[in-house]
Design brief:
This protein is mainly α. It has one domain. The chain is built from six helices and no strands. The chain is globular and about 50 Å long.
Length: about 210
């Protein structure tokens, strides 16, 4: 076997997308359940630091190694999203920032990531329906949440609750996409669970 290996050959890197999607899905589920009022406060912070944060960020780094610019950008960004959000919340809990500023701060935080998510949602349409579904539901979640946080009490709290429900849907779509990618990798790349086709292709565009 040693004779069959080329000198300096680099071993194949497994697809990190299932890990990135799973870390994102699980952490989104816990935070969304908290926003709805089902889960305890801060239950999501540990996973935001280590699973949705660190593990997803590492999945992004491995995507760079594989040359996949979309998943590298998406997982690195949302890994950093969870690390940043958890850090901010912990600093608030430790009294480093006034609690009264939290809703406005979260509104700006989510608005900024919604801008990023908007163009990533369009580019996700070039991959498959399942990945597009993750970014579409996430877009709705972020919009509902940043409007809710900016609106304050009353109507704003209702929007945050609805955003939590849509966030749970986002987590479900991401879990499914992760599961489909895992079993596809186990089957040698063969599609086992349907993920749909790309909604946007370059077919027919290259005309003289």
């Amino acid at each position: 076997m040693a004779q069959e290996m080329r000198a300096g050959a680099v071993p194949a890197v497994a697809d990190p997308a299932p890990l990135g999607l799973a870390g994102f899905a699980l952490t989104t589920l816990l935070l969304s359940a908290h926003n709805v009022g089902w889960a305890p406060d801060l239950i999501w912070v540990g996973t935001a630091l280590f699973y949705g944060g660190l593990a997803q960020f590492m999945a992004g780094m491995w995507s760079f190694r594989r040359g996949n610019v979309f998943t590298a950008t998406a997982f690195s960004t949302y890994g950093a999203f969870w690390l940043s959000l958890a850090t901010y919340v912990l600093l608030v809990v430790l009294g480093k920032f006034p609690a009264k500023e939290v809703p406005n701060a979260l509104g700006w935080f989510l608005l900024a990531f919604a801008i990023f998510n908007t163009y990533m949602m369009f580019w996700a349409a070039r991959i498959n329906l399942a990945v597009f579904g993750v970014f579409l539901t996430l877009e709705l979640t972020e919009i509902l949440l940043f409007i809710g946080f900016f609106s304050g009490s009353g109507a704003g709290e209702g929007l945050v609750l609805v955003g939590g429900l849509v966030g749970i849907l986002t987590a479900a779509v991401a879990f499914y996409t992760s599961a489909a990618d895992v079993v596809s990798g186990m089957a040698g790349g063969r599609a086992v669970l349907p993920v749909g086709n790309a909604l946007w292709t370059d077919r027919g565009r290259r005309r003289a």
